[in-house]
């Protein structure tokens, strides 16, 4: 069976409401997709494991069964997508799981309690999902075998350890009737000095021989712009001999909107290569790594276009017409959303960077200088106009228009503030009122973000958005107070503004690196 699917991340703060998963299934079915992977690290209920997904909005057994039945009714196979090695970031906070922890968020291989937990996971999947396919994860276990495992067993060849664990997991999956596929990057990382991609990579034959025959390798790649890079990797997979699925991405992972240009620039050559190499199963991931700031429904035209590419249709106008006929909204309106990234190269996440960049520290102010002026006022006008014509998706445009309004002032606030400080006290006076205005705009954005969140997701996880955005507001209040104190000679300097800002080789969009140079 040829599968065209989507993977929805329901583990990074946002767990989609059952009603909204159904809404997504409706949309995917209309677009011609026939599979949906629901990525849940610990966000599903397991009997006798009360801390598994505790306070995370986990799906109950009844909810999974409801989604599963609905998917079947729409001709969509609901496939569980879990983890069985790493990415248990939230779970390992609980001391109840200390015995199964190796290091960071990685399970302890060869520990009997680890496999007891994995057995419970598969038992739960078997009870709630109709499909007997399962994505077992296994990706990005960078420090595997280097923590408690090393203390208990000493150093062992990590590829050997990884394959041993894989075989144990596959045996458990078989016990419950599942056929497995897995993110395959660890084979390449362990054989290639940590790199998951490259030309002419070779996995040792003695390791290839130990890969279970009925495991399918899921080649995920969202990073390359040249077809030859994908061709090389597919060639390597063919040499391994195991069946392979391809997973691309709609780049929702670290900001408030998808990276429109990056999706097309990376996925078009990827799909061309996959078609050429006769890859039957093609999926596209909507990740939420940065805290699930982005609405997955903002990616509908991307899902549609990528499915059309997979079917061999690369005609831009035909794709736009087809999307409009299905949803009654112009693809070009959705493309407006990506403008708030405000970068010369729209392959980067910038909107969250500018929102969270601390107003006094200016840790990313050098990026603002390098990137140049951004006409957020015009973007706000365009997005606000789009609200009136985007129908059921207008709440997304309303939210992002409000964000763009914030960035009109917040984008280069730190750069302008530091320049004013250097010019003398009179130049600082307007910034007191500007702090108030930015706060006012952020509060409006926050309420519209809350509307978007609670329409699409369970309540759990929004506390993260509250803390983040509340912190930005409070820092602006601090900034206003510091300027006032300086102007009235209560203090003789604003210490942060006396420091020169430095550039960084790679600018980060993660909240915790933008708010402070310390620990958050």
The rounded Rg comes to 24 Å
What's the oligomerization state? Answer: single chain
Question: Going across the major beta sheet, what is the strand order?
Answer: 3-2-1-10-9-8-7-6
Q: Which strand-content bin applies to the residues?
A: 5-15%
Coarse morphology: globular
Structural class: alpha/beta
Number of strands: 10
**Uncertain ranges:** none
The major beta sheet can be summarized as: 8 strands, parallel
Order of H and E elements: EHEHEEEHEHHEHHEHEHEHHHHHHHHHHH
Q: Report helical residue fraction.
A: 40-55%
End-to-end separation: 47 Å
If helices are DSSP runs of H or I spanning 4 or more residues, what is the number of helices?
Answer: 20
The average pLDDT is 94
Structure commentary:
It contains 20 helices and 10 strands. The chain is an alpha/beta fold and 520 residues long. An 8-stranded parallel β-sheet has the order 3-2-1-10-9-8-7-6. Strands 4-5 form a two-stranded antiparallel ribbon. The mean pLDDT is 94.
